[in-house]
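Sample entry (469 residues):
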Amino acid sequence: MPANPMEPQAAQHYFAPQAWVQGAWALNVLLSVDAAGRWCGITPNATAADRDDAIRLQGPVLPGVVNAHSHAFQRAIVGLTERRGGAPGAASDDFWSWRDRMYSAAQRISPEQLEHIAALLYAELLAAGYTQVCEFHYLHNAVAGQPYADPLDMSLALVRAAQRVGMGLTLLPTLYMRSGFGAAGLRDDQQRFASTPDSILRLVDDLQMQVRGLANFNVGVALHSLRAADSAALNEVAAFANAQHMPVHLHIAEQTQEVQDCITHTGRRPIEWALENLPMNARWNLVHATHTTPAELQGVQQVGASIVICPSTEANLGDGVFDYSGYAALGGNWSIGSDSHVTRSWSEELRLLEYSQRFTQRKRNVAAQHGASTSTAANLFEAALAGGHAATAQPLGAIRLGHRADFVVLDTQAPALLGVPAEHVLDALVFSSPDAKPAAVFVAGQPSKPAAWPSLARDFARTMNTLWR
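Predicted structure, serialized as tokens:
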């Protein structure tokens, strides 16, 4: 006999020998998930009687992590841009020469191919313990730059990929109107990105209608960069997003040339200009912010905005080193993203963030100086979790009542964790390699069961062969 929909559904109970609750390890934790996939009970030091009907989890439990910045299609160029371009003695590679190579992928990918690339990527991210990804999506148009008959074609390819593997998705249709400060429009190789405030707002509205009721999915907006749209267009999209309480994402101050171009055209540094001219608040996420002044970081902190740090991509592209210590000393909010996906591991992102500070400051345990814990890994992890809420505008990133019950179960038999005392498991997870993959990943209280890896790999390999051979 079917259950009465008016009656409350029984909670699902899990028992964890240890779980990360409120920034520290709690022991013998009974975890309860309601029918909506949210935490409805968290009981440390549970007795044997309390946990009698609970499913026993076989290792320590951590909250799932939000990947706050992704360009899924760039997974198709990982490993393909690591050779010198041009003749011997030619100018060295930098971000801008990498960007030209990245455009070669952007020019080719069809909706079907994007779905195949994103599905494999999202499965990799999920297996590493990311349970929600923010997709900064600007491949709107067909290969030659003309609009698709259905403007949602590329967006829905990403939605299908996430649904196929069980990844939570925050989709961020992106405003992209010009090639640089003062330019009249886009370059020929940027026409796939072409959009206007009207087209982005229609895309957002249509997406919300199309996927209404879809589990673990929401929509925000992205402004590609200050160089990619004028002030009026940026403010029009931003005002819409703020009125709808949506997350807003913006690339900013990633490269020194970008900073100099902004000063030349506006008289202000990028974040300085944004603070003066855009309606920034706690739902805003500034991606990279690699080149900043203390005053700019203080301004970001004061308006409550967050910074999305992407250590592996910023290292791979030679962007520079984010002023983590200066920002953390202010109590600034931040999250992590894997951006171009040269790595798909949040623990490696946190490790690289800390090591970049050690390289430049010639000190150890830098993050341990900025947070409630004496543990470097704990302070990094807690900050990254907290930033996931701003990045998605969703209750994610904590084992906390009312939050979505996303969590990972660690494998203490993995070489990086083998024999490590319980209180140091998180430290070893971040600072011992090779990475210890989770034994299990749960999204909204349910074990993730992604599409079979052989089919994902087959589709991805076929797409790669079509694109590059």
